[in-house]
Write a structure and sequence with these properties.
Blueprint: E1 4-7, E2 14-15, H1 17-31, H2 40-46, H3 51-62, H4 68-80, E3 88-89, H5 93-99, E4 105-112, H6 113-122, E5 131-135, H7 146-154, E6 162-166, H8 169-178, E7 181-185, H9 191-196, E8 201-203
Parallel strand pairs: 1-4, 1-6, 4-5, 6-7, 7-8
Antiparallel strand pairs: 2-3
Helix pairs in contact: 1-4, 3-4
Length: 213
């Protein structure tokens, strides 16, 4: 049986941190004009567990007393305007996807599904994946294993022949909860966090993904 490879998006397939930071600061500027912009590295540390938590952490960091639920629609509007301003595949990722062609591939992310599909379509690689699922496509966000287990079932795989590929502790916990193997990548948002989760494999460059199959 061909191995199923399930990829995280932000920090794994694509480098989207600058666009996320730009959207975050644009949203904060709308709801609280005059506040200093949050530095890129700080926003990067807030990414990975869904847009609401990104907004909540950003508001707290900026000292803005607004409800995350009120600001979230503003963030979505700002982010939708700049999804592909600077976002790109990580260097070597297109070639890595070529190297695993013939194996079923999917994406499971906490980013909203429509944004995720627009990004991968804009980068010309959406056709590589049999499913691209994000928030709104599955009942609960990672680390809940439901979306990953549904991918395993729908794509005719088994936990033993599936890899979750991600850059964060959230991805590692998702894999563990679903009983699938975990490949932690070190070029993303949280290399230290993913290493602490003791994944089955550490991958230091996209070219190494071919070794999973």
């Amino acid at each position: 049986m061909a191995a199923l490879l399930v990829f995280d998006l932000d920090g794994t397939l694509v480098d989207s941190a600058r666009d996320l930071a730009s959207a975050t600061n644009a949203a904060l500027a709308r709801v609280a004009p005059g506040h200093a912009a949050i530095p890129l590295d700080v926003v990067r540390s807030f990414v990975g567990e869904g847009a609401r938590l990104l907004v909540e952490r950003s508001l707290r960091h900026a000292g803005i007393e607004r409800s995350p639920d009120d600001v979230l629609p503003v963030f979505f509007e700002c982010y939708g305007e700049r999804l592909l301003d600077t976002t790109a595949l990580f260097p070597g990722m297109a070639e890595a996807l070529d190297a695993v062609r013939g194996h079923p591939l999917a994406v499971l992310t906490n980013k909203p599904g429509p944004f995720s599909r627009r990004i991968l379509e804009g980068l010309g690689v959406d056709g590589r994946f049999e499913r691209i699922w994000g928030a709104g496509d599955v009942p609960a966000r990672k680390p809940d294993p439901g979306g990953l287990l549904r991918l395993v079932d729908e794509l005719g795989s088994t936990p033993g022949t599936t890899w979750m590929i991600g850059d964060s502790a959230v991805d590692a916990r998702t894999a563990r909860a679903a009983g699938v193997r975990m490949a932690g990548v070190t070029w993303g948002l949280d290399p230290d966090g993913v290493r602490r989760e003791d994944p089955d494999r550490i991958v230091d460059a996209p070219a190494g993904l071919a070794e999973l199959v």
